[in-house]
Specification:
Distance between the termini: 5 Å
Shape: elongated
Structural class: alpha+beta
Radius of gyration: 27 Å
Order of helices and strands: EHEEEEEEHEHE
Number of helices: 3
Helix content: 25-40%
Number of strands: 9
Number of domains: 2
Length: 232
């Protein structure tokens, strides 16, 4: 007569429980990231349909764009060119022009992309509309750099300068964020704003499925190794 017994040595339990907990937590983390990404993309899709609201300088900038309208004067004598920006595989720059509001607030307006002309030692100097300007665009946080290795605090050539660098360059407070100028607004260049970073929710769900599958595989091995058969 064949009998089955399930023996649980202490070492197997001590290895199984943390391993299962880790794999399940990783799968759940990726699942939640996929859900959050899906919700964010839905917000991005609605961004272009938003009615522009009056810009509030106290409004915290986030990666979810908020369509706003505001007025101020461009200072094209202090604008920044973000190098290493491509458009349809053509090298160029994104033009950050500071805008001074009536209350003295200074913020950055991204007026779009321009092609590289000449050499980097002699970058272009695109003009900006003069006088009081009524503009509309998308208020959002500055793009995060992938990695920084020993760059100076006022590095004008940084691909994605952060607010500390910007304030250092201008030697005065600057709002932490940028206005992406509306595609139809005057005074801009190529503006094909892409709010999606190309990482779809399905990829997060795929990673979640892999972690859960590994958890099930670990459970199957655990049962197989500890399920013993004996003969009377």
């Amino acid at each position: 007569m064949t009998r089955w017994s399930f023996r649980l040595p202490l070492w197997a339990v001590l290895g199984m429980v943390p391993g299962m907990a880790l794999l399940i937590s990783l799968g759940t983390w990726q699942l939640h990231r996929g859900q959050a990404r899906e919700a964010m993309l839905a917000q991005y899709a609605q961004a272009g349909e938003q009615t522009a609201v009056a810009f509030n300088p106290k409004q915290l900038a986030t990666m979810t764009p908020l369509r706003v309208q505001l007025s101020g004067r461009y200072d094209d004598q202090r604008q920044l060119l973000l190098d290493n920006q491509s458009n349809h595989q053509r090298p160029g720059y994104e033009v950050w022009t500071p805008l001074r509001m009536a209350d003295g607030t200074l913020l950055l307006v991204n007026r779009g992309w321009i092609p590289q002309s000449g050499t980097r030692t002699e970058p272009p100097s695109p003009a900006a509309p003069q006088g009081e300007q009524q503009i509309s665009g998308y208020w959002r946080s500055l793009s995060e750099p992938g990695m920084r290795l020993g760059e100076p605090a006022c590095a004008k050539a940084s691909k994605y300068p952060q607010i500390a660098e910007v304030q250092c360059i201008f030697s005065e407070p600057v709002l932490n964020g940028e206005i992406l100028l509306d595609a139809k607004a005057d005074g801009g260049f190529v503006r094909e704003w892409n709010f999606d970073n190309g990482f779809p929710p399905s990829r997060h769900y795929g990673y979640a499925a892999q972690w859960y599958a590994l958890a099930l595989t670990l459970l199957a091995f655990f049962i197989k190794l500890n399920l013993k058969r004996s003969h009377d």
